[in-house]
Amino acid sequence: xxxxxxxxxxxxxxxxxxxxxxxxxxxxxxxxxxxxxxxxxxxxxxxxxxxxxxxxxxxxxxxxxxxxxxxxxxxxxxxxxxxxxxxxxxxxxxxxxxxxxxxxxxxxxxxxxxxxxxxxxxxxxxxxxxxxxxxxxxxxxxxxxxxxxxxxxxxxxxxxxxxxxxxxxxxxxxxxxxxxxxxxxxxxxxxxxxxxxxxxxxxxxxxxxxxxxxxxxxxxxxxxxxxxxxxxxxxxxxxxxxxxxxxxxxxxxxxxxxxxxxxxxxxxxxxxxxxxxxxxxxxxxxxxxxxxxxxxxxxxxxxxxxxxxxxxxxxxxxxxxxxxxxxxxxxxx
Amino acid sequence: xxxxxxxxxxxxxxxxxxxxxxxxxxxxxxxxxxxxxxxxxxxxxxxxxxxxxxxxxxxxxxxxxxxxxxxxxxxxxxxxxxxxxxxxxxxxxxxxxxxxxxxxxxxxxxxxxxxxxxxxxxxxxxxxxxxxxxxxxxxxxxxxxxxxxxxxxxxxxxxxxxxxxxxxxxxxxxxxxxxxxxxxxxxxxxxxxxxxxxxxxxxxxxxxxxxxxxxxxxxxxxxxxxxxxxxxxxxxxxxxxxxxxxxxxxxxxxxxxxxxxxxxxxxxxxxxxxxxxxxxxxxxxxxxxxxxxxxxxxxxxxxxxxxxxxxxxxxxxxxxxxxxxxxxxxxxx
DNA sequence: AGTCAAAATGGTTGCGCTATCATTTTATCT
DNA sequence: AGATAAAATGATAGCGCAACCATTTTGACT
Lengths: 333, 333
Fold this sequence. Notes:
By secondary structure, chain A is an alpha/beta fold. Chain A has helices at residues 7-14, 18-26, 33-46, 52-59, 75-90, 104-115, 131-140, 163-176, 191-206, 224-237, 250-262, 280-284, 296-310, and strands spanning 64-69, 94-99, 121-125, 144-149, 157-161, 181-186, 212-217, 244-247, 272-274, 291-293, 321-322, 326-328. The first copy, chain A, has a six-stranded parallel sheet with strand order 2-1-3-4-5-11, with helices on both faces. The longest helix of chain A is centred in the first third of the chain and has 16 residues, at 75-90. Chain A starts with 6 loop residues before the first helix and ends in a 5-residue tail after the last strand. The first copy, chain A, binds a DNA duplex through residues 6-8, 16-20, 22-23, 26, 30-32, 35, 50-51, 53-60.
């Protein structure tokens, strides 16, 4: 096996200079058609593939976007990722993805690692970075987008929606429907879940009539199965009084719904259920589950677009972009 | 904003040579503790981050693993990815991920792009690559793993299981249970789905007693909703005769199950349902769905380990690794 | 103290490519 | 045809780092 062909090898085969080959690859318009064809043939013939490291070093453009999400297994981030990938493709960039497992410390390490790739943009989830991480990011001068939630003091750009407001709204939805013994089921308890819980509490505190609340949370990661366990827990804690539950996401809500069948509870007659994120299954189970929808795919896309337009070094402060959310009312409430 | 600090800047601050700084970063054991501490402080102080492109160019080690999956949205590949990421972390590597949308041509382009990163290993899904893609991969000399299914002529290494056998087994399971009018619901119809269908047909052809089969497929991508539609379709085609369906994955199976409720069909009395992939929801719905489980996470992990041990240039042909599968029998059949 | 091996540190060079500038060729006009 | 601009091509240098080899320092032993 010969060693990998380089620019010079292509140049020799095509009978041109190395720099011309380089141009064919990055600025085809600047080369006459005759030479371009010759070079392209040579490239294909010897299976030449440009050395990205050398190219990035010489050109100071890595063609890479760094992305950190808190969890690969959570389908919510998957949707965002798909949006990111779809947008990145247009710009001929590569994504380097990190999973920080909801840990700011792990995120800090990841940020350092990913910065070494000299990414042309950085997409972070949430606004909960360590100080050192923020320092590194700021010093890098790279455009940065923080996704999913809104921040008063974003590192650079910010796009998301208010999980607090969504929590308030969905809780009010339950209250308006006449439910008065509300449970909150929370897993993981990351910052966004905490904000939803804060919204839940706020809505109840502000409500003019007497009502009860039962909060059951765990730091375990979310799953359908866990939803069933948490429903059991909230029913135990409320001694069977609880008549509606706000689940911090749709996985829990689905699990809670499945559990009601085993407990012989009617939804929504005996107990109402609402979730968060509006997964496909929530609309198709029986009864369908009320949930909170947000434009995740579009958020991912828009994040990339923001990065691309921002590389123009305008250090003007950009206001956070609120993509909003929508309460999808269904039979479960 | 000053330009990014480099090795020399750190060296100046720490009062050592550049190469010593480099060693602290890559071979800390080779440096005395005194200097190491000084250098580490300097690195942290000025927020130095190594330039990956330069490092990769000089050392000829990119620290990157390339991965191509057919779909980001399919949770099945998500599991594999998680396994890959968990293993990659141990080895201090980065993943560069591509989504080829089930298209060999798109995959070919991705392979060329990702090869330019000089990855130290390449993980592909399936065995359906174009000739030129195979040429590029072979010529690169990089260790390669093809995942998910087994191949007679793998490019390099191969780990997966037989979707054909799984299709045969699950169909036989239905036949043994006494069902005789079997439907197959297929979406996407990628190679693995086709193999499952082939298994379905084989089992029916080999069965000693008379039985009927109804095959309904579409190239649309799979979803829960589609499962409901395909169930409608197979019931229409069989004029209500169909008494069991093998869904090519659990999304379809869930959708089919939800649809039976709307159609007032009892599962498994009126119709049996089985799926593929054993998603969490399948075990928790009522009735729980029979499915085929496979060690996806472990497959991902093992793929990375294979790549890492294989970089030793042993060009011996390695036999495919069959990780097997398991039929999980539940109430739906 | 003197010898030698081993460990620690440093200097030089080149990885493969592209930015920059210099040069040559081609096209356009009077 | 000659003058000028514009397009196409080429030569050189350097991006930031680590491999390689040279040198210095340290430690272990007689």
